[in-house]
Sequence to fold (1029 residues):
Amino acid sequence: MLKQTESRAPVSQKSHKIDKPVDPNSIGATITIELNEKKIAVPLGTTILEACKANQVRVPTLCHHEDLCIAGVCRVCVVEVEGMKSLQAACAFPITSQIKIKTSTENVRKARRHIIDLLLSEHHGECYTCVRNRNCELRALASEYGVDGFTFGHREKKMHEIDKSSYSVLRDMDKCILCRRCVRTCIDLQEVGVLEAIDRGGKTHIGTFMGKPLSEVICINCGQCINRCPTGALFTNDPSDDIWRAIDDPTKHVVIQTAPSPRAAIGEEFGMPAGTSMTGELNTALRRIGFDKVFDTDFSADLTIMEEGTELLLRLKAALVDKDPNVKLPQFTSCSPGWVKFIEHFYPESLDYLSTAKSPQQMFGALMKTYYAQEYNLDPKDIVTVAVMPCSAKKFECNRPEMVDSGYKDVDYGLTTRELAKMIKEAGIFLPEMPKSEFNDPFGEASGAGLIFGATGGVMEAALRTAYELITGREVPFENLRIEACRGFEGIKQASVKLEGCVPAWSFLEGVDLKFVVAHGTANARTVMELFKQGELNDVHFVEIMGCPGGCIGGGGQPIPTSPEIRKKRAEAIYAEDESMTIRKSHENPHVKLIYEKFLTDGPCGHKSHELLHTKYVKRGSFIV
Amino acid sequence: MDLGIEKSARKGLVLFTQYEAGSAIKKAIAGGREDVLFELRESRLKGRGGAGFPTSTKWMITAAATAEKKYIVCNADEGEPGTFKDRVLLMEYPEAVFDGMVIAGYTIGAQYGIVYLRGEYEYMFAMLKEYLEGMRAKNLLGQNILGKEGFNFDIEIRLGSGAYVCGEETALIESLEGQRGEPRNRPPYPVNTGYMGFPTVVNNVETLAAVPHILLKTGEWFRKHGTDKSTGSKLFSVSGDCERPGVYELPWGISVRELLDVVGARDTKAVQVGGASGVCIPKSQFMRKLSYEDAGTGGSVMVFNETRSMLNVMHNFMDFFVEESCGQCTPCRIGNERLLEGVHKLISGDFTFAYIRNLKELGATMQVASKCGLGQSSPNAFLSILENFSDEIYQSNGSGVTHA
Fold:
């Protein structure tokens, strides 16, 4: 089994969690402490914060984030531990002895208020106009912890220019409170390492290599830092004004495609619990906003399966039948633009292993301005294509110079879930109230396979459902088509399916153990790539990698906050929707069949699809001049 | 073993006495680890860097830890303003310092020792390396030291890069590992999870230098010097308004007044004990004793006479902390800036007493809520000067000149 390597983050930015005992009943596994004069038993090594959470004691946090290692830098979570002369950070204190904790003494309250006061004194807020207005952790803390004035002043002047260089991620350092969640996200959670604390004392700031703008460093645009920023210091490059302009322009035919992950999460922006699927409601809302057509990205996800799956089978044939020594296996998926930029920067020598298939978003865009324009007699120059994605990197992807195979910019705007929620609110629509409606034709129907692309392992599961059936003529041998080996949030998953009873055309695959690996988050991707370089994946055929933790449902454009629990619920919504679908295999999607009959007549990976649906990559490397 | 340095005519009770290189190592090896720990515990030696943690406890925890590797780190970062005693020890008494490290290595079971040498002391680097070479030649370092089967130990010197915070032991370890020098969360402590994750003892130069003397002359002898809670002697680096500034070895428990007499200070208005992170003592408190239990110090004693402006002193210290905070935790990073702002307002005369009261409360928060000792001690000077010299401070008329 593949092992995850240890994080490369500096120790001061890593957790110092003590391994909790495996058997909670073994002697010494639990320890009795006193929390606010109440005796409780906790597992050895539990942090004070965890102990408080489990016992209905709320402790404020700011630098702490469930997904990240422990920093203990903001100090807002300080509590009193009897016998210690200083207050202790609850998030960073592992319990290993019978301590007595008090969470609301005069000293503690005073310290918390002081800390919030201090942060406000350096924070140029502009709350009214802030992108995180009403969803700001600092603002919430200030109101919860009795900050009723700027005791130590308040910064009135802007000190920094907003870095707007990136297509995806913008930075406003006036709002940064130096909690370093972004730093830990970048180096520890994603192992990219673009952001770091620079200088010291009062001059400390979060910066990039040589202070370069974000577009000129090795940022992969995953936007995970945005999802974890407690304030509005990090946000996406919002194209909604341009989209409004297009909608208002009567000469423009504005179409929108929605990916599965935003639909499973956008409800959170309207107060719905995580995991509420809003597909039908969203379709109605988008039409009311003024989009001319609403399409389902799942359609092009199905198309991706056909293209990418065929590509894999061709590579397998080249390896097994033609004995081509240059064939590149395993084949890596290419639908996650964060992952694509990651491999371009860090493993440019391995780019040939990446599938050449475009992502569903880009395939859709290319077809929109060719096939769709042709079918509906539209001039492609008047079509504006918008893609609702859970992703900030999709903004970068649609602006890649090579993504113009239709003769026009294939996708004009990448819009995140959060930005779309704002547009819906601005249009005077409360999403949960909307009646449900369907997607438009000619891409109206999609399969459940395209839908599950949203969760880590989904592409693999979709591909297997199709590939297995094409090769053997039988459905994948799993109950209700659930391929459990692909599901779940383990960092790196590895499994195999034995191909037996193959149909004549694929008889060369008879007896082959189809091996696959699934990883999510670029930290795990790095581990996979290191193993690949060591030759440990030589017998693997297909590798799915998603740039974000949890896959697209945890994307950098998704509603804030994010946590393992929230991502799990979003994934559950997607898998539940899949089971409710009538078509659950990409190759059974009638629109996909139709498009290969009518438009892409030379079939998957044929000449036309190569022209429109496949792409090439850039050897970027780690140094950018 | 001769460094070619002429040892000046220093006089003292423990450290500034004759010590024959290697003799304490011999005794340690002959007696065994338990004996070393016993003598150390008997001596009640506490850390000389300023924090005053019992050395024997530190060593015992590390000795008891089971690990593939262990480390002993000599903290020679000596960054506290007004401290220059480690420089003297390393230049003139390297035999005691390095033998102390070897004994520590033997006792805790470490194979490696690292000296974290202050960047500004680079000029000593070559000389110290040469000294270590000499030790290797005499088998005081290396394999099977002094014939003790299986006792392998060597020392390496690393240079710091000038950050004050790297004197904090966990920031020092981060720096040694090649990271940005920032304190870690504690617990776990370095004695369990230190350099490269291995159990590590970090001791001040002076602490290590005392070890060979304690071993040769017994802990009981050491304990006879000083006070009950502050045993032994201390090196004081005295600077400022006095006739004979320099490094003095004196027993713990000596009063500020007595020390001032020794160094020939006259018309003294204030004494800053413990460097920038210490407290400022006014004339009325000169009977206070220099000791862990009263006025503690890692060695720095700064003397200010009647001509000095305490506002300037305060300004200087706060400037220092705003610059030297590592920038990691909120109370220290922003708190020090706010205190410095307060000093500016005190100087300009543009302040209210309510505002000053807020700053004092903030100082108290910084003392308990900061992540490491730097932040916890950074408001000390501000608070004590405000407390002890309030008449002078509040008499500022806005011209920036105070009336003493």
